[in-house]
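Changelog-adjacent note: as of this version, every example in the card shows the full chain rather than a window. The one below runs 296 residues end to end.
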Amino acid sequence: MEPAPGPAPRAVLFDAYGTLFDVYSVALLAEQLFPGHGERLSVLWRDKQIEYTRLTSMSGRYRPFWDLTRAGLRFAAQRLGLDWNYGHISEVYTEMARVMPSLQHISWDRVAREESVIYPADGPDVPGNEIVFTSGFPTADGRGRIVPADLLPPDEVPDEEYPLVLTTGRMLEHWHTGAMTRRAGVLDAIEPQGIAAMNPYEIERRGLSIGDMITVETRRGTLEAILRADREVADGMVFMPFCFNESPANLLTNPMLDPFGKIPEFKYCAVKVSKGGAVPGDPGYGKGRSLAETQR
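Full-length structure tokens:
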């Protein structure tokens, strides 16, 4: 992801690790990781509440996410004419429980006492139900509603100029933008550079070789990456992970929104590949180094 040039006038980032995106913000607030929070954090997944407790003692300028957001919440509420002045995370959770039926009978004290509670629960001391909807759905007649949907064609399909399909995704070794995993020496040694994967038969048909530096081009732009063979990639398709800042796959994807969910069509667009291209430069972090080390 690359924003418009210059700092965003109101962008404030919360992060425990410096990233290449930090330069586009007007402020960076250093956040403690979960083990140092010292507060219980309720993660509202579909089936459970999870409690994290302090595992380490942290000092200095790092602060828990709760402390960093409290002032922001208060400021936003004041602008809306509301009096939000929470003194503890439990107060936020209790307010949520008043308007969320799924949290009925699951108080903050219960989560703290039992450490993990499945919802929904039929009573304050009754174990949670493994199945969410056992006797009906929250509709007027208790029955679920199934709505048929027609498939829409992609906004951009392959043609003579761009004969392949580009799709993007994650890879095992690096999480999202690689802000943490690309600093891990072992992980970065396994996957140090941006790649483009194609089916071996597609590679052969196009006269390419595994390990070639190739140029990947769409109507949005051009990137260089190392070619890799992967039988899991369908014929006629190119797969690129989006974790490499020096080979940012999302610069090539189609930003068009679907008419209902308003989701960008990042997973499908027309593309062409050719042999050759410059080796991408240093990403700014990686090889087991911190961001500060790469800037010396």
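Structural remarks: Residues 162 and 271 are 5 Å apart (CA to CA).
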